[in-house]
Design brief:
Blueprint lengths: L8 H11 L2 E5 L6 H10 L7 E5 L9 E4 L5 H7 L8 H14 L6 E2 L8 E4 L21 E3 L2 E6 L6 E4 L2 E6 L2 E5 L5 H11 L4 E7 L3 H7 L9 H9 L4 E4 L6 E3 L4 E7 L12 E2 L5 E2 L11 E9 L4 E3 L16 H11 L5 E8 L2 E6 L6 H11 L1 H4 L4 E6 L7 H10 L3 H4 E8 L9 H5 L4 E9 L17 H10 L10
Parallel strand pairs: 1-2, 3-18, 4-12, 20-21, 21-23
Antiparallel strand pairs: 2-3, 5-17, 6-9, 7-8, 7-11, 9-10, 10-17, 11-14, 12-13, 14-17, 15-16, 19-20, 22-23
This protein binds flavin mononucleotide (FMN) and manganese (II) ion (MN).
Length: 485
């Protein structure tokens, strides 16, 4: 498998600058402005530029924040070492194949790395030396950890987990850590807490895009995300042994901390609210009243002129990822479940998933819809699942809406399934359900396909065939200019 061309976040940023759109933003306020401009730029069409914030208000030049890193299909393809000129649907498929075929490569310990260029310990520790943004007006505080990697070690097996969990700044040396129930990083903390001990922890802010991707993908318990990064890169991830915790810390991270998470009975703190990916404030103490774990920082390490990787959630109308790679993963899972003749899978926003099939037999669409509902990749958030025919491009909302408005008879072609897996941040979950920890909600499957039994009598599409469209566009391009694709 091919290796990726870059070694760390800054090399990847430089590679992006060479192939794609980006802007430097100077003098922005860490308070709301970085968040607001990122949200506004994410809505730029066709693809948002990468934003590099420098000389942020109250901070010296060189203390930087990067946002919209992976917001174009080109940058997402580059991050995985994929060709840059493919359609979104093809890229999603290629990305999934790469992820599926990855063989784990363990990290390689090196004696030192650039992350140790600057060290703060003891009284010197101050996380607000970095221009940590306040992203959304009603956020409970400034969040340094959005595109982060949180690392801890299972005390029983020695297995090292790495996960992306949001991290709030409470004080110069105290952070809030929100890990949703069941997260592997939380399970590890719990084992220490059960013995009345604090859990040693490390975290990085500003890893390369594959380290970020591995951190937020759920690997089976016991298979380390650090080895998955190596596999994706095609060579081991270099790590240094944390001087305080002994945990592996990516040597080329922009910023890293070491510290410990005390048992919540001994120390915990209100956390959030935080504007989350569904487009609402949620999680943490919000809605449940539960205080959340904290990280007591013991040391901060950082490179010269560090870059915080900002991956703060935006509402779903401001797309932050150029490629919904999970779509390709779902595609594989559906094929694994025996669904044949899938021509495309596209996840528009975790709550809206479209699957295109070439119908081969009566019941094929229903089989695909119900399988999607149960697949691990869609089970948690797949509120609307739409099955379309092969003539519909599932990545095009225009085409999907056309299928939904013309091939669905609401009385018969929408199926509701109740009691499905969800999460506490589901905005529509009634307070009593959330409080009783019954984190379930319903799903709707739209069978937006020509009914199989009378598909031959279904009115023929009057849309111009793609070949003729291409031909006339080419012929009249001096009179009318069309965007490429
Ligand atoms: C930008 C971003 C932020 C995230 N924030 C959180 C969070 O605050 N809490 C959480 O439990 N999961 C969060 N997640 C999801 C986890 O990273 C994901 O479930 C991952 O699988 C967790 O790792 P684990 O399976 O090793 O526990 C976030 C994901 C992304 C992409
Ligand atoms: Mn894990």
């Amino acid at each position: 498998m091919s290796e990726v061309s870059y070694n760390d976040l800054r090399e990847y940023i430089d590679a992006c600058k060479a192939i794609d759109d980006w802007r430097e933003i100077r003098d922005a306020d860490w308070k709301e402005e970085i968040g607001a401009l990122t949200e506004a730029a994410a809505e730029l069409i066709p693809d948002p530029p990468m934003l590099m914030f420098d000389k942020i208000k109250d901070y010296p030049e060189g203390m930087r924040v990067v946002s919209l890193l992976l917001a174009s299909p080109k940058r997402a393809a580059l991050s995985l070492g994929l060709p840059l000129d493919k359609s979104k649907l093809e890229l999603v498929r290629l990305a999934a194949r790469k992820i599926k075929e990855v063989k784990a490569i363990p990290p390689m310990e090196v004696p030192h790395g650039p992350v140790m260029e600057n060290v703060m310990t003891g009284e010197d520790v101050d996380i607000l030396r970095f221009p940590v943004p306040l992203y959304h007006k009603l956020d409970g505080g400034r969040y340094i950890g959005t595109g982060d990697s949180v690392i801890n070690r299972d005390p029983e097996s020695g297995y090292v987990n790495m996960g992306t969990y949001r991290i709030q700044v409470h004080e110069r040396n105290l952070l809030g850590l929100w890990m949703s129930p069941g997260q592997q990083g939380r399970q590890i903390c719990q084992k220490y807490w059960d013995q009345g001990k604090s859990c040693p922890i490390a975290a990085t802010f500003g890893g390369d895009p594959l380290t970020f991707m591995a951190s937020h993908s759920r690997r089976p318990w016991g298979t380390s995300e650090l080895e998955f990064v190596g596999g994706l890169r095609g060579r081991p991830l270099e790590v240094i042994k944390g001087p305080i915790t002994g945990l592996p810390i990516p040597a080329y991270a922009e910023i890293a901390i070491e510290g410990e998470v005390p048992p919540p009975g001994i120390e915990s703190h209100p956390e959030g609210p935080f504007g989350e990916w569904p487009g609402y404030y949620s999680g943490g103490t919000a809605g449940t009243g539960e205080l959340q774990p904290v990280i007591r920082i013991k040391a901060i390490y950082h490179r010269n002129h560090p870059i915080i990787l900002s991956e703060a959630p935006l509402w779903p109308g401001a797309p932050k990822y150029g490629l919904p790679i999970g779509s390709g993963v779902l595609w594989d899972q559906l094929e694994g479940a025996g669904i044949q003749d899938i021509t495309g899978v596209y996840n528009h926003d975790r709550y809206f998933i479209v699957i295109a099939i070439r119908q081969r037999y009566a019941g094929h669409a229903k089989q695909a819809g119900l399988a999607a509902l149960g697949c691990a990749e869609a089970a948690r958030h797949g509120r609307y699942i739409v099955i379309v025919d092969e003539d519909i491009d599932p990545s095009s909302m225009k085409e999907v809406l056309w299928a939904m408005t013309t091939r669905v008879d609401p009385a018969t072609d929408i199926e509701i399934v109740d009691g499905c897996l969800s999460t506490p941040i589901d905005p529509v979950m009634p307070p009593e359900k959330r409080e009783s920890r019954d984190h379930t909600s319903s799903r709707a499957i739209f069978y937006a396909v020509r009914p199989f039994a009378w598909r031959d009598k279904f009115p023929k599409s009057s849309r111009t065939e793609k070949a003729l469209l291409r031909e006339v566009k080419e012929k009249y391009k001096s009179v009318l200019s069309f965007p490429s694709s």
